[in-house]
Amino acid sequence: MSTDGTGQGGEHASSSAQRTSGPVNGLVQLITPAGERVSDPEFDFWVRDITDEQLCSLFEDMSVIRRIDLEATALQRQGELALWPPLLGQEAAQIGSGRSLRDDDFVFSSYRENGVAYCRGVDLTDIVRVWRGNASSGWDPYSINMATPQIIIGAQTLHATGYAMGIQNDGADSVAVTYFGDGATSEGDVNEAMVFAASYQVPVVFFCTNNHWAISEPVKLQSHIHLADRAAGFGIPSLRVDGNDVLAVMAATRVALDRARRGGGPTFIEAVSYRMGPHTTADDPTRYRDPNELEDWAARDPISRVAALLDRKGLLTEELQQQVKDKSDAVARDMRDGCTGMPDPQPLDVFKHVYSTPNSWLDRQQDHYARYLASFGDPAGATLEEGAR
Amino acid sequence: MTQMTFARAINAGLRKSLENDPKVVLLGEDIGTLGGVFRVTDGLQKDFGKHRVVDTPLAESAIVGTAVGLAYRGYRPVVEIQFDGFVYPAFDQIVSQVAKLHYRTRGAVKMPITIRIPFGGGIGSPEHHSESPEAYFTHTAGLRVVTVANPQDAYTVIQQAIACDDPVVFFEPKRRYHDKADVDESGDPRRAEPMDQARILTEGSDVTLVAYGPLVKTALDAASAAADEGISIQVIDLRSLAPVDYGTVEASVRRTGRLVVTHEAGQSGGLGAEVAASITERCFYHLEAAPVRVTGFDIPYPYSKLEMHHLPGLDRILDGVDRALGRPNSLSGLEG
């Protein structure tokens, strides 16, 4: 589905700003875990254009990225990927925000926002390229206006802020959106990014997915107050939203985008969700996590609640469910085929793109390594056994 | 030709870059109204505005990190790190982001960022104001590292660094900021000698003396003093520290057979070690003696009343030259 994501704020924009100042109590929520659509005098406005058809589409998107995620996890278990960072449980946070963006907005995310990449139109094979070890970036950032997902925790928030400074200089109304987790909020870079963003009032949205766990460390180790409440200290308005509610996330993101486009500066969104899986496929959460907690959050599943809402509305037809299943199957198949069919990189690619201009040190090393490979009678080195390198 | 100080020459080069390319922006602490603590950016904010010459909050990681974002957006940022010892909070952004993004994105994203760092000692400052951290950066793939030793190079190379599509760490020898010389502003930096070429400053046949940044002047003084004793020294100003122009150094050592390399930074793991090793590999059979390093000690930068013991001066360099020549020197008779 596509939405223009702009909303038409007017009076509502300022009243939402009112609500977002000071300590944040409670969550913005528009769909309960049981699938009941609850009305909200302020935030209903921001999703008033979402038709039944679009709700079905959001349901499909969330189901598809869950399938992408499960398929990638399976590929890792089968030895086709070296590692995978699951997003299971965070589908609403990623789809609700990702579907609110315009093409000319620019995303600076962490490695877990593969659902956002899906919204940006990423090629499915590109999602797993990094995790197969075939590249350090799955895609050309300019092809989908999404930077290479960042592995250094929180570093990307500064890139988003700098990009937003550029938007401001250019006089454009695009927005830089940065995604990070609860753990990242303790990093200096995230705090410095908020200082700079507030100082220059640049169009950036800080989208914090509080999934409660930074590998084994619970969010209470990072902060004794709501993460959203930290923003006030920087003079940045914030929203605390049910991150498992796709409509609430969309409403909050639109409030933030609207403010940024109007020159109102940054917004901090805390999307409260839960990491249902491990940190990555190399992690074992049974070592540190109470299984009861997992059960509690399973009852707040982001996809089930939209399914329940669609059911209440009489929209969860067999036809819709079949359509979603077909789409998910097709996407998973394409991704798997793209993954297993990916050609291996060539040995001398290791030297490519370190610099954009010739470099005498590296040219010499490349020349020597090419001669070394050639000494095996195999200039490309493609068939060289690993032990012989 | 205009006579100007080193600092003024960089200022003139920055001004030219701001005039020639609307995508050039300057970021740093105190660089706007104040014109920088060394006045290198004096007057630039007044003439180019607050959006092109940006006073930043005091956060070095953010200064470099936002420059990365600006580069993503197509800008050509020039950041000032106020003093050498203040660069470390930005180390992650420089090493993990600036240096690697072009490689990471297979060339899709360029990082034409210039990181200006006043470096070196000799100005009587407290701790953190006199360091020579160049080896951290020359060891980092993806960065180019340059320094300059005279106002003309300062004027030209700062423009070449800014125009370069790769990230460049530009070290400014702060104790030379007030040295004056004639600067020709009429030349096109694109047609000047490339910044990654070393330069032979004096012809000499007995010893090759490699220096860069603040010690180039000291090296020239040493060569002049040695000439009085009949010793002929070829002084080379490296200019580019990554990559080093080994071709120029190698050609010289093939003739002189002797190498002395000097820098203010500590010895172990320093650039001098890399130069000595590379030259030994390249022309071992032309060497008449082991390469000699005359460097700062492996100590934290000392309090200022002792700094002249740490910094290689003319006499210590000449002592190193004597070692290379097998003449009587301070270590005569000492094994190893």
Query: What is the helix/strand order of chain A?
Result: HHHEHHHHEHEEEHHEHEHHHH
Largest sheet strand order of chain B: 3-2-4-5-7-6-12
What is the residue-averaged pLDDT of chain B? 97
The low-confidence runs of chain B, each spanning 5 or more residues with pLDDT under 50, are none
- At CATH's second level, what is the architecture of the largest domain in chain A? 3-Layer(aba) Sandwich
> Strand sequence of the main sheet of chain A, in spatial order?
1-2-3-7-6
Outline of chain A? globular
Biggest chain pair interface: A-B, 43 and 49 residues
For the residues shown, what is the average pLDDT of chain A? Answer: 92
**In CATH, what is the class of the largest domain in chain A?**
Alpha Beta
Short description:
With 389 residues, chain A is an alpha/beta fold.
Keywords:
heterodimer; A: Rossmann fold; 2 domains; five-stranded parallel sheet; two-stranded antiparallel ribbon; 7 strands; globular; B: 336 residues; alpha/beta; five-stranded mixed sheet; 14 strands; 35% helix
Write up this protein.
The complex is a heterodimer of chains A (389) and B (336). With 389 residues, chain A is of the alpha/beta class. Chain A has two domains: 11-341, Rossmann fold, CATH 3.40.50.970; 347-387, no CATH class. Chain A has 15 helices and seven strands. In chain A, helix 11 links the parallel strand 6 (238-242) and strand 7 (267-272). Chain A is globular and about 75 Å long. Chain A starts with 10 loop residues before the first helix and ends in a 15-residue tail after the last helix. In chain B, helix 10 (271-283) links the parallel strand 13 (259-266) and strand 14. In chain B, helix 1 packs parallel to helix 7 (151-163). The longest helix of chain B has 15 residues, at 6-20. The N and C termini of chain B lie far apart (50 Å). The chains are: A alpha/beta (389), B alpha/beta (336). Chains A and B meet through helix 7, helix 8 and helix 15 of A and helix 3, helix 4 and helix 5 of B.
